[in-house]
Amino acid sequence: MLHIIITQHKILVHQNDEKISLPQKEHISQIKHMLISIVQTDEYLVSGIDPVPDNFPGSLKLIHLRQALNYFDDALLKVIVYYQQLNSYYDTHKFCGICGSRTMRQDKNKFLLCSQCNHEVYPHIAPSIIVRIHKGDEILMARGINFAPNVWGLIAGFVEVGETLENAVRREVHEEVGIEIKNIRYWGSQPWPFPSNSIMVGFTADYKSGEIVIDPVEIEQAAFYNRHNYPGRPGTTYSIANKMISEYLSQ
Ligand SMILES: [Zn+2]
């Protein structure tokens, strides 16, 4: 039985020398009273922690979910991201937005129900687009202003109210790097836990016109690169950005 213990953007792990893994039953016996069960399956016991102590006993520690992306395989990360997003939804929808009463979890349906007015409170999922722009043999790669050294990615951003996904792709590209694109095609999607409730929707597109002019509020560097001179990769192999760039590099 693996224990997925999450609190906001952190996950509890067991560290043995350099090896990071999910804690087993024997690791968490001393903190059992702090755990709030979220769900139990045949393979996983998923819990939150309240209160979160300053220090954990033994070799337990909380690490940021971004770090965790580098320690676990894709199948386990899918499970971790799913429950992190579900937990975040529960944490941020404790009260009804209409009458202010407590919401209740239901056994069968995956939404919360107001205990007074029966308002159904569905998870808030925030779509974001990400786009791989091709220009001949090159693709546009960019560094956001908050990226770690040597980390590069693709143009991405949140979809705004009233916008189609394709319009969001065109707008983000125009805002962040000043160029126009064409032939926008769906690539794939990925639930993404940052800030907490995103789904990244990936597209490819072709360069149409314009010179690159970066928006310095969001982008530090951006240019077209080919398979031989690309400047870096995303910070984690789990991200859709990395999968989209890997596909290009392998072609
Ligand atoms: Zn209500």
> Class of the largest domain in CATH?
Alpha Beta
Span of the ends, CA to CA: 40 Å
Structural class: alpha+beta
Task: Give the number of helices.
Answer: 4
Please tell me about this protein's structure:
19% of the residues lie in helices and 37% in strands. With 251 residues, the chain is α+β, with helices and mostly antiparallel strands. It folds into three domains: 2-92, no CATH class; 93-124; 126-250, Nucleoside Triphosphate Pyrophosphohydrolase (Alpha-Beta Complex). The longest helix is centred in the first third of the chain and has 19 residues, at 74-92. The mean pLDDT is 93. The protein binds zinc ion. Zinc ion binds next to loops.
Descriptors for this entry?
single chain; 251 residues; alpha+beta; Nucleoside Triphosphate Pyrophosphohydrolase; 3 domains; 6-stranded mixed sheet; 4 helices; 15 strands; 19% helix; globular; binds zinc ion
